Amino acid sequence: xxxxxxxxxxxxxxxxxxxxxxxxxxxxxxxxxxxxxxxxxxxxxxxxxxxxxxxxxxxxxxxxxxxxxxxxxxxxxxxxxxxxxxxxxxxxxxxxxxxxxxxxxxxxxxxxxxxxxxxxxxxxxxxxxxxxxxxxxxxxxxxxxxxxxxxxxxxxxxxxxxxxxxxxxxxxxxxxxxxxxxxxxxxxxxxxxxxxxxxxxxxxxxxxxxxxxxxxxxxxxxxxxxxxxxxxxxxxxxxxxxxxxxxxxxxxxxxxxxxxxxxxxxxxxxxxxxxxxxxxxxxxxxxxxxxxxxxxxxxxxxxxxxxxxxxxxxxxxxxxxxxxxxxxxxxxxxxxxxxxxxxxxxxxxxxxxxxxxxxxxxxxxxxxxxxxxxxxxxxxxxxxxxxxxxxxxxxxxxxxxxxxxxxxxxxxxxxxxxxxxxxxxxxxxxxxxxxxxxxx
Length: 440
Ligand code: NIG
Ligand code: FE
Prior knowledge:
Elements: E1 21-30, E2 52-61, E3 64-70, H1 71-76, H2 78-83, E4 88-91, E5 96-99, E6 101-103, H3 115-122, H4 127-132, H5 141-146, H6 149-165, E7 168-174, H7 181-196, E8 201-209, H8 220-237, E9 243-248, H9 255-267, E10 271-276, E11 294-297, H10 303-311, E12 315-318, H11 320-325, H12 334-340, E13 344-346, H13 360-371, H14 375-382, H15 384-389, E14 407-410, H16 417-420, E15 427-432, E16 435-437
Parallel strand pairs: 1-4, 1-5, 6-7, 7-8, 8-9, 9-10, 10-11, 11-12, 12-13
Antiparallel strand pairs: 1-2, 2-3, 5-14, 14-15, 15-16
Helix pairs in contact: 6-7, 7-8, 8-9, 13-14
The protein binds N-(iminomethyl)-L-glutamic acid (NIG) and fe (iii) ion (FE).
């Protein structure tokens, strides 16, 4: 990881002043603890190891997890017995506790939903027909360019709160609906402002290469040069982004342009990730020398790229919400990826065009019903592998002593109910860096 590691951690309350938290009487706690010293994202059979403790308790102090184990052990612990009155104790009444979801792919900085596109698609127009008729990503640009930063920040903040109400504690947030220097920096600043006093963790990404804006319509290479020479250095200098993302696909950016953008990111100390294979197949192996944290969508993957992916730590982040909302019959072939040993994560891809959902339980449900992932695999993909996809697995994605106190309490008896009850929210409470948030 580069020296410019950047994410927006909460400013308030100061972790040391936080009161301790004891979650007791948990029916099932899914620790996702690793069997051995973690060496990389979970693959194949390791994706099915949830390490469940029944009748459990979790102690959190100073925003960190201190211990996790059977409730009866916690209640006998001398430190807990001595300090019981100083800590907040929560009786979880046999509910299920999981690591907070890590939503590793979202586009929250936009102004309005795209209802015309929604209707056109229902009438039969394709993604590319809608874009050619002036809809799609380009139709969200004007709103963001004109919006005040405070307005964008307020929208992002609302989304972060809604996500937390569904159990998400860490969010990757991309710019990408401004596509001028000013509006991309404004979008990243809005993310920073929104995240600053939200108790969860936000990882910002510059997606200046989302699509070629109208002003550069006939000279996309000039736009790429602008992204490389102006946008990336400016965002890096201001420490506004940790990652650079590219939409590498038909109608967006070519593999050659993506390489140039990755190279510029590297020169500016930023890590890379990319939208790959959503509409068409792009060969992936040549990009692995940039150590991308993640390739996202992955509807189309060439057979010969599977082997190199298995050997890399690049995560394949699947976003079935986009396939669902676009009304596609086909979904990414998760079984082929998982069974071959590719590391797979799940994310919402929250955005106004293809996936207007903030719900990680919904992404899990779609993964189970349409991609044949088991509830166990979906849970690990939505937590620990999301953390790997963001380079934060040392602190996020599992319930282990020393990690950040990011937990979600679900009002169910069995974790498999999380993807089972699709469309309704069973998250009763979320703990973000040790701070408790309950849905209204
Ligand atoms: O991940 N594929 C590119 N970007 C988004 C779509 C964004 C939009 O349509 O506004 C995605 O699906
Ligand atoms: Fe996306």
